[in-house]
Amino acid sequence: MMNRRDTLLSVAATALLMSAAPTVVPAAAAAAEPDISKLPRQKVELVAPPFVHAHQQVTKDGPKVVEFKMVVEEKEVVIDEDGTKFQAMTFNGSMPGPLMVVHQGDYVELTLVNPATNTMPHNIDFHASTGALGGGGLTLINPGEQVVLRFKADRAGTFVYHCAPGGNMIPWHVVSGMNGAMMVLPRDGLKDRDGKPLHYDRVFYIGEQDMYVPKDEHGKYKAYGSPAESYTDTVEVMRKLIPTHEVFNGKVGSLTGKNAMTAKVGETVLIVHSQANRDTRPHLIGGHGDYVWETGKFSNPPETNLETWFIRGGSAGAALYTFKQPGVYAYVNHNLIEAVELGATAHFKVDGKWNDDLMKQVSAPGPIPGGPTN
Ligand SMILES: [Cu+2]
């Protein structure tokens, strides 16, 4: 008799086969392409969001093979102040997975590891890549397996990656945490609409995620022993399309208070924002998007001076802003119900000198002159 896990494995395998992933990869090798075996190689250690691994914004070097390794981790995490437990499935242990940065024309070479301690097959679909379901058709691995995928980052921009193991498994793995983003920078860096170079002093990666945690008959969030155990109840909540949590970087409060992102007045910050499943509308309260690539595609001219921008579900965007005033800025999904009630709020803590010309409290709160005194 099949247990739950075997059932899920076979559902995933069948669905993937039905999606017609190629089993034979055509030999590439058009004449103009470089001999990949002769290209320089660079190993990159990924770091957990909101931080981003060290990288050059502009490169004068030719294309290279950039080596990454990600380990899939299935684990229980707590996602809010009430201690709600969540059976997460993650790339490299974080929600979202790490931001991977390369330059256009580089080759991305990912070693994806699914440790034997996991319970599910996983894979990865890179929206930055071309072919085989974004690599998903070539990377499906069972617990105890690993796979190496190489693809050419042939277009610039910010792109989502996510697990897509087939059929009903796809949305479930994505909203369980298996999503992240890649930034493919133009080799000569970011530009404004007139071709003037744009530079950032800091970069942060925010991955927004909708979560669907089942409740018991008393309205309390339920906890489960494994992702598979949570599956049936979770899908029931998912199908109603009403998230119980909408969070930045894995849980409510992951980027607020003492976890705030930091900057100084005069610094330019690039904010990469992804949502692999659902639309969102980032807004920096008290600031703007000086330059915004809403769709994340750096070959398109950036919009300027935006108040709020739109990230389509299944994409990542980038916003560049130079802070002009000190203080704590909330960075929110400006569906404010999602920001305040469901968790989609982050903070920037900005140090520096206040500019009275831009804003001044001319008169502090006080009694209305001539009004009643008590
Ligand atoms: Cu997965």
From TrEMBL:
Protein's recorded name: Copper-containing nitrite reductase
Flavoprotein listed as a keyword: yes
The family this protein is said to belong to: Belongs to the multicopper oxidase family.
Amino-acid positions noted as binding Cu cation 2 in the UniProt annotation, renumbered to this chain: 173
The organism of origin for this protein: Rhodopseudomonas palustris
Coiled-coil annotated spans: none
First and last residue of the signal peptide: 1-27
Enzyme Commission number(s) from the entry: 1.7.2.1
